[in-house]
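Protein data:
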Amino acid sequence: TTLIRVEDAYGAFTKILTFYDQVKHNKQGIEQPSVVSESATYGENLYLGSFSYVGNNVKIGDNVKIYPNVFIGDNVEIGNNVIIFAGAKIYSETRIGHFCNIHSGAIIGADGFGFAPQEDGTYKKIPQIGNVVIGDNVDIGAATTIDRATMGSTVIHHGVKLDNQIQIAHNVEIGENTVIAAQTGVAGSTKIGRNCMIGGQVGISGHLNIGNNVRIQAQSGISRNLKDDETVQGSPAFGYSDFN
C-alpha cells in the first residue's frame, strides 16, 4: 500500500477536493439562448449558462461561472472567481465580492418584509429601496434568501458561511467568519458579530445585537442581546452552562 503522509490530513484532503472542483467547473463561453444587456461588462473566462439573464449596467469580474437559468438584475456588481449555480436570482443593486459561491435557488435582494398597518386593518407596503452587500469568500446555500434593506444595505461580511434554507431579513448585518446552519431565521435590523456559530432552526428576533464569538445551539429562540463569547440554548435561550 502506498501512503502519503501529511501533518494535516483533513487540510490536505480539502486541497485535493478543491483542485478537483476547480477542474470540474472549468467552463467558458456564453451559451444560447441567453440575454446579456449591451451595457453589461464582464471580465475574462466568463461562463454564462443557457436561459440566463444579465441586466443593464451589470459588472462581472474575471473567472465567473454563471449556470443556466440565473437571473441577474440591473446594476449588480460581481467580483472575481464567483460561482452562481443554476436557478439563483440576484436582484438589482446587489454587490457580491470575490471567491463567493451562491447555490441553486438562492434569492438575494428580494424585498424586505415591510408593511405599515392602516386604520382599516389593511397593510400598505413600505418600498424597500436599499440593497444587499456581500463580502469576499462567502458561501450561500441552496434556497437561502437574503432581503434587501429598506434603506441602506443588508451586509454579509467576508468569510460568512450560510447553509441551505436560511432567511436573512432586511438591514441585517452578519460579521466576518460567522457560520449559520440550515433553517435559521434572522429578523430585520439585527446585528450579528464575528466568528459566531449558529445551529440549525434558530430564530433570532429583530433589532438585536449579537456579540462576537457567540455560540447558539440548534432550535434556540433568541429574544435578547447577547454579549461576546456567550453560549446559549433553548427557547427562550439561556446560558448553556445553566442547563440541568
Summary: Residues 130 and 218 are 31 Å apart (CA to CA). The chain has a mean pLDDT of 94. The helical segments are 9-24. The chain has one helix and 33 strands.
